[in-house]
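Service request form, structural biology core

Requester: graduate student, group of Dr. S.
Request type: structure prediction, single chain
Budget code: on file
Notes: please return the result as structure tokens.

Sequence provided:
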Amino acid sequence: QVQLVESGGGLVQPGGSLRLSCAASGSIFSIYVMGWYRQAPGKEREWVAFITRGSSTSYADSVKGRFTISRDNAKNTVYLQMNSLKPEDTAVYYCKGGTTPWGQGTQVTVSS
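Core staff response, request fulfilled:
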């Protein structure tokens, strides 16, 4: 079973940028849709963005125009470029695709 490891989180000021990575232990080519999700303290996990094997993308309204999801099937990695970050983007970010189990996530904190 493919395992996913998220990285790239950290502390950033409002308006800043971060690039998250999701590295898979095996091939993601067969996983049609890969997605990023996030969970803020005291809130339920929510969908952020997804990308199909053919690189079609979709975004939650709250991040549209600021976040960009991409995938590199050759490197078995999915990325989330986050620009113009806001305090409300603070959360633990996870990636998932198909039946892959949830990983540990990576913490993103947006604060001055």
